[in-house]
Amino acid sequence: MILGNIDKNKSTAEPIIPIDFTPNDEKGSGITFKFRSIHFVLLIVSLVFGFSGWFVLTAKSVFVEVTPITAEIEIEGGINIRLGQRYLIRSGDYSLSLTNDGYHEMTTGLNVTEDQSQTHSYHMDRLPGVISIITEGLAGARAKIDGVDVGTTPISEIPVEYGNHRLEVTYERYLDFETSIDVEGRGVQQEFTAQLEPAWALISLATVPEGAEVMLDGEVIGETPLDAEILQGRRNIVLKLSGFKAWSDEFTVIAGDDLIIPSVTLEPAEGLVFIRSNPSEASLTVGGEFQGLTPIEVVLEPGQDHQLTLFKNGYLSNESSIRISPNEEKAITISLEPITADVDIITFPTDAELYVDGEYQGLANQTIQLMAASQQIEIRKEGFVPYSAEFTSRPGIDQVIRVNLKSLEQQRLEQIKPEITSAAGQDLKLFNPSAFTMGASRREAGRRPNENLREISLERPFYFGIKEVTNSEYRLFDSEHTSGIVAGTTLNNESQPVVQVSWTSAALFCNWLSQQEGLPAFYQTADGEITGFNAESIGYRLPSEAEWAWVARTDDSDRSLKYPWGDRLPPPEGSGNFADVTVSNYLGEVMFNYDDKYFATSPVGSFKPNYHDIYDLAGNVAEWVHDYYGAVGSIGIEIDPLGPELGQFHTIRGSSWSHGAITEMRLSFR
User: Fold this and answer.
1) Other C-beta atoms within 10 Å of 536: how many?
2) Which candidate, 5, 70, 479, 642, has a CA 20 to 30 Å from the CA of 473?
3) Going along 224-270, which residue ranges are E strands?
């Protein structure tokens, strides 16, 4: 169908004329393709060019730089194309092999990175060189290369690594040789020569007379006259010839610098005298010059008289003369006469023994002759401290040595400190007690039936607390303890005596003190209870009743006091803290004619101490003692008693602030 054009300027359009359609009955011509060998070739060429283009576009330019530049390079592990000094290789890991004559073969890895152009450098190591070492005119010199022994010369064809090395060559009696050598490596043969220089000089010696033995540094090397090769250094030369004095000198020998020592004229030898004395250690002078103490060896000039003088403190001096021949040896002994004086020795005990300078002289009580010199005097007896002193007797003067030996027990007692301080800060005083009578007479007013008279002998020293134990001291052991209050008045101040303490607690406090000071516990315990005691222990304990009574009741005459101040009531002012007018509204029985100013307990040590300087044994608070309570009758003399072995209760001694009756105020009250 054909469409006509429409002219917009014309009002009438041209008509479209239809035509008939006639189908085409002709068949199209067919196309056919036949594959031939040329087609295969073209395909392969296309693939090769395609792959090559792809490889060129993706490969990296790699420069392999090798020292030496003559090395052969082989790369394995992938396709590589060499273009002059460069290779086209795709990124990745490859194996690189390098070979070159005279060098160690080298195989290493080659890592090609993503960089378009890159350089990889390699250095090949040379093969060792082959060297020989000789020493002109010498064989057997020891050679070292870089400190490593390589043998003795001549040394032929040994491998040495390429580079600079230190060559050392040593040979006896020659100067050490050192040099630096450059080894070419690559199997190149090189020869090095070490020129060794002698380390000695020629020394010439002559003596008058001839035939002297020559010793060099203590070794004999010949006789004079002598020409000898002597090694360099500081050398000592000694010349010896029988009948003559030895000659010696030191020289510095310089290698290659020959030395002629001027002829040495030897002097006649001196004589030798060995001098002993009786006694030994006497001082010796020869011709007025001090030589030393005997026994002594002295050298004397031959052919002349020599004046010898021997002297020693306590002896008469001795003078004599001696002459000696050349090279003669002689020994003499000279006895000195002692200077003595009589000394009277008086000792106690009389059977003590006397020692002078360590030698036994018999019983000490005697008159003995002692030298007028310093001597060690000792007087000994078993069980006593020995006496020892330096003594010098003086002739013409009456002299007496008087010695009273001290027994070991006396010494032990003297070494004991008179006062000590416990771990809780308490001061204790040492007492050496005596015998006394404990208890009270039946006729004594206020006496109780349990105050039987007892004969006591206290033989063992003991320490006794100067003041009663305070609250602050006891709380170091039991921090929770409280002593309470009385009628609104506290008993709990730090300096007040501790109360409300059982006997067991008091004993445990003693054990605690022992523990603090590393002493053995006196009281034996189990589950917090006292089960016994160790009478031999030196640890802290409560005083025995006898010890308490001795400290409380005795004075310098060992009489038994009734009260701390004497035998009558009332107590003088300041005697102690008792039941007085201060507590008259609280207690029933008080002393109305005494006022101590304290309602209850007072700080410890507030009043006068007793004769032994112990405070508050009467008044303030009563004290626990070690003993079980019991009425003990007279059973003869009791030595250091510790009370009954068994009992139900323990004894309390002393009165307190709440006591004012005559019975309780007495020191025998228990």
Assistant:
1) 7
2) 642
3) 226-231, 233-240, 247-253, 259-260, 264-265
pTM of the model: 0.47
Q: Which two tokens stand for residue 592?
A: 């109305």
- Say yes or no: 105 and 136 in one domain: no
Q: For residues 602 and 596, is the Cβ–Cβ distance under 8 A? A: yes
Q: Which residue has the tokens 């392969």?
A: 44
- Output the pLDDT for position 15: 62
Distance CA 605, CA 246 (A): 90
* Exposed e or buried b per residue across 224-250, where buried means at least 16 C-beta atoms within 10 angstroms of its C-beta: bebeeebbbeeeebbbbbeebbebeee
Let me know: does 177 contact 195? Beta carbons within 8 Å. yes
Number of domains in the chain: 5
Alpha helices in 355-455 (DSSP H): 408-415
**Alpha-carbon gap, residue 389 to 131, rounded angstroms:** 86
HSE at residue 70, side-chain half, CA atoms within 13 A, is: 4
**What are the E-state strand segments in 141-199?**
142-145, 148-152, 155-160, 163-170, 177-183, 189-194
Q: Which of 158, 179, 194 is a domain's end point?
A: 194
- Residue 301 CA to residue 431 CA, distance in Å, equals 76
Please give the backbone phi and psi of residue 72, each rounded to the nearest 5 degrees, phi first. -85, 135
Instruction: State the residue range of the domain holding 308.
Output: 271-335
Question: Cα dist. 368→357, 375, 403, 562 in Å?
Answer: 14, 13, 15, 58
pLDDT of residue 276: 93
- Do the domain assignments include residue 33? no
**Nearest-CA neighbor of 133 among 147, 145, 121?**
145
Helix (H/G/I), strand (E/B), else coil: 48 = helix
Q: For the segment 35-78, what is each residue's pLDDT rounded down to a tens digit?
A: 678 877 777 877 877 777 787 778 888 999 999 988 889 899 88
Structure tokens, 666 = 């007495």
Going by C-alpha positions, the residue among 665, 610, 638 that lies closest to residue 464 is: 610
Looking at the structure, tell me whether residues 87 and 107 fall in a common domain: yes
Residue 541 lies in a domain: no
Contact 160, 166 (CB under 8 A): no
Question: Where does residue 204 rank: exposed (0-12), middle (13-18), buried (19+ CB within 10 A)?
Answer: middle
Below-70 pLDDT ranges, the chain? 1-35, 558, 633-634
Q: Any long-range contacts for 112-117 (C-beta under 8 Å, 24+ apart)?
A: 112/60, 112/62, 113/60, 114/60, 115/60, 116/60, 116/61, 117/60, 117/61, 117/63
Counting every residue written for the chain, the total comes to 670
DSSP 225: S
Beta bridge partners of 250: 236
In a domain, 605, yes or no: no
d(CA 578, CA 595): 8
Cα–Cα distance between 596 and 577 in angstroms, integer?
6
Nearest C-alpha neighbor of 454 from the set 644, 621, 617, 610: 644
Rounded CA separation 476/493 (Å): 14
Q: What is the 8-class DSSP label of residue 218?
A: T
Residue 390 falls within a domain, yes or no? yes
Cα–Cα distances in angstroms (integers) from residue 52 to residues 46, 63, 88, 91, 282, in the given order: 10, 20, 11, 16, 119
Closest CA to 170 of 152, 190, 189, 191: 152
d(CA 660, CA 670): 15
